[in-house]
Amino acid sequence: MVGQQQQQQHHYHHHHQAVDGKDTASRVVTRVNSQTYQTYQYHLLLVAFVAFLYGLYYQISNVYHEYATRHSKHHHQHDMYFSSFVPSTTSSHAPASSDAKYTRSVFLPYVHRFGTKGVPLVWVTMHGGKEDVRIHMPVDTGSTGLLIGAPLLPGIDPQAGTPGRQYLSSSNIVYVGRYLDLKLTFHGIGDVSAGARVPVLIVDKSWMCPWYDPLKHGFECPLGPEGQHPVERDVSGITYMGVGFGRNKNADGQRTAASWGNPFLNIDSINGTRLRPEEIKAGYVVSTKGIQLGLTRGNTRGYNFMELERGIAHAVDARDWAMPRMQFRVNGQRSIPGSALIDTGIAQMYIRAEDSMPLPEVVIKNPKEGGTPTVQRVKNGTRIAIDFGAWASEELCEVAASYSFEVGQDSMMAPSYVVPGKQEPPPYVNTGRNFLKGCSIAFDAVDGRLGFRPVQRFQSMI
Ligand SMILES: *[C@@H]1O[C@H](CO)[C@@H](O)[C@H](O)[C@H]1NC(C)=O
Ligand SMILES: *[C@@H]1O[C@H](CO)[C@@H](O)[C@H](O)[C@H]1NC(C)=O
Q1: Which pTM value belongs to this model?
Q2: So where does this one cross the membrane (predicted)?
């Protein structure tokens, strides 16, 4: 239903723009009527000429739009296309609230250099009961909510909190423990700090549980379909910080899988001084350099924004937005639109095509110990191109960013490998973290927009 409403809004916008154009033209003609006959003729010619130019421009821009939408299949490697390169009728019209009034922002550099291997980390002090603990926390845009092993927060009473659990489907891991509201301090560049208070799952037990179903199973990993015993994990090393959006589809039992559990959207102080809500714009930029908390006019400059649809909890929390829309092509064949996830938590890509769409697959020996003996991969040589943008009439109508790569070819934005996804329809793609090597993203939780900005060559060489 939400999708339908958005579609109609989109159509309205398009028509509205066209009507605006005509209005301007007729006002010119009306004014011309009061002129003398000679100037009238002259003006009429001018108006005709302007109208002709306008028509020509309109046609050209439509052609450009088509071009931008279809283009990437002809390209190699990690090329990106932005509709800001296209005349303005197709550029993003996602509304921005007046960003000028938001001035506060804190930059969190990563602990290690960003790379294909390893989730990016930031420094955080956890204020846990009687003891503060300074640790580095992984920044995972593929989930929402904080998880931390109980042994890491010795100051917290082992009985405190309310029982809870979380399941991360991309890694098949179940976490069981207690929810507690905790204060965190993020450590930014130049000793600046940013504070947040969010519910955290203190993990008492965890299992590797590929057969776990969050809707059926509870606070334990059951025996597997062939009677397998689940593998219990050491909880003393568990730190996970989910900062993604649109991840609350199976929110059953996951109290923190929404904006109120996202520490990056709940920054309430800088350097210990409380912020008024109108001082900081809930949202963040993710790049290969670090995290910029709080959007300002300055730090979103150059981003090409697309509108996001409302998230399922939007009525409860207006900062809840759905995953961005995308459409992909596999060896030139176009999918129907689906959703995308730009996930800093993984190096590989997951791609789920329609059942009728050929996705060349191979079965290989599982490179990891302990899992199934074989695993499926998308075949080397497969060309994948992805367009991100708003959706209308079963088509992507405005492309905010695109990229493409060939599976198995070493290119900047290509994932380390590609796994054919098996989740329910519609199509879905998880790009993995290498997407950020070519493109930074800005999530605006106030206006419901996602922005893309290509990484400049000179920046990526620093
Ligand atoms: C925060 O505090 C640090 C030192 O404690 C100081 O260098 C910095 O300028 C302060 N920043 C803000 C935004 O108040
Ligand atoms: C694909 O190609 C890469 C690089 O040449 C190679 O390392 C990898 O094993 C290949 N994968 C498959 C599934 O064939």
Answers
A1: 0.77
A2: 40-60
